[in-house]
Amino acid sequence: MSNQNVFSSLIVTGVAALSLVMFLGAGPAKAQTSSANYTFLVAAGFLCDSGDSTPCPAVVKSAQGDSYEMSGAGTLATQSKSVTAAGTYAHKSSNGNVIETGVWVASELVSFNSYGIAPRALMRQGRALGPPQFGPMRARMFSGSMPAGGLAVLRIRLLPMWGMSRTATLEVNCALGKLPDERQTEGIRLRFEGSGGQFDDEQGGRTLFLLTRPEAGYGRTPPPSRGETTPAPSDLQR
């Protein structure tokens, strides 16, 4: 196996592990705050389980015809405007030749515009998002979460296998909920700082935001401790 293939395999394995940790960890602790917290996928995870290769990776092209193929996952919090996300990318020429590959890491949540929750999204797109019966692991992933649409604008750092890193703005659009007229297409857009160019022609790629919320048990009055006794009705009336 070539050094490039080994490096690519390590990247994919590392990002997959990071994405899983973030996906499973973005639950109760953050959901108890007043901030809206989301887990999101970009052409990754169960979004790619249907056997249809078109949703993954997400592809966007420039006016010159070259493209970026991207996948990743992360979490974001709207109140603190914080984000933790990472993924892989490949830059290809207009004829399909690979120009550059590497990883991307989010450094800032610029903005997030919610389109609202879409509680029937998983069932309506069941073929794309996996079979109706998710099993124990997926049941845990979806516990306390609701599918939602929205537009996240992230500042990211692209770290290539060779050469200098670059900064860009990544737009992740999930076309669920109440969509604005100008963002009806699901996918990504990529704009580099300075004269690095912009990629605005979405070519496909499934994305999803999951709004995390407190578990059903949160907020309930805890049961009395062993040392406490519940007063009898006659005692309460005195």
Structure description:
- There is one protein chain.
- This protein has 238 residues and is of the alpha+beta class.
- It has one domain (3-237).
- 20% of the residues lie in helices and 40% in strands.
- It has helices at residues 3-25, 28-31, 121-124, 126-129, 135-142, 233-237, and strands at 37-42, 58-61, 67-77, 82-92, 98-117, 145-160, 166-174, 187-192, 198-199, 201-204, 207-212.
- It has a six-stranded antiparallel barrel with strand order 1-3-4-5-6-11.
- Strand 6 (145-160) and strand 7 (166-174) form a beta hairpin.
- It is globular.
- The protein starts with a helix and ends with a helix.
Fraction of helical residues: 10-25%
Tell me the fraction of residues in β-strands, as a range. 35-45%
Helix and strand content put the structural class at: alpha+beta
Largest sheet, order of strands side by side? 1-3-4-5-6-11
Distance between the termini: 82 Å
Round the mean pLDDT to the nearest integer and report it: 75
Separate helix tally: 6
Write down how many β-strands occur, each being a DSSP E stretch of 2 or more residues: 11
Could you name the ranges where pLDDT drops below 50 across 5 or more consecutive residues? 1-13, 19-34, 123-142, 214-238
Rg is 21 Å
What is the helix/strand order?
A: HHEEEEEHHHEEEEEEH
For the report, how would you describe the main beta sheet? 6 strands, antiparallel, barrel
What is the global morphology? globular
Could you write a compact summary of the structure shown?
The chain is built from six helices and eleven strands. The chain has 238 residues and is of the alpha+beta class.
